[in-house]
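Re-run with default settings, no changes from the original entry. Doing this only to confirm the output is reproducible before filing.
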Amino acid sequence: MLDPDLLTAVRSDLDRWEGYFAWMYLDSVGLVTVGYGTMLPDARAASLLPFFHSTGVAATMAEITKAYDALKTGSATQKAASSKHKFGAQHYQTSSDLIITRATASLLRDDHISRDYTQLLDIYETFDTLPQAAKVALFDMIYNLGPGHQKTHHHRATGLRAFGTMNQAIAAGKWDDAAKHSLRHGIPAERNKAIADMFKSCAPPVKKTVP
């Protein structure tokens, strides 16, 4: 079971970096997203959520599907755009008048965290014994990257599992090395730095030698 203090820390981290957006938008790689960075894989997934019109009237599944499909048409353009030409979430606010409540967004985020916890226990056998800062950092990474798959004969590792060098450093307790290899592409530099700093903070203080 996820420790309440850790859950609070993870929520705070994700709320800071993902932000809360009540409407559907395209993320930096063109995936339809809503709330606190919850990716919606297809129109059906979106249509199962309680969306409302700005008037407060509940949206129908057909209306949600239509809004999703219209937004999805811009996916390839968003994905191909350079960093400075990508649209932020605010750009899509007027794409439709459909929104979810903050309570729904929070439930989606917490469900994501719960599923990520199960995956983290699978990837890191000693996850529950890691320093708190390292746990928060890994939750941040898996929320964004997904757990991914191990390297096979035909395919490269993906998601968090693709960070092999970082994961080896974590297993060895080499936190400075873990920080160096935690860089994610497509993530704001300040977020990468914050996560690296979390890993660095896990290193024991250097003992000063007495002359």
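The CA atoms of residues 17 and 94 lie 22 Å apart. The chain has nine helices and three strands.
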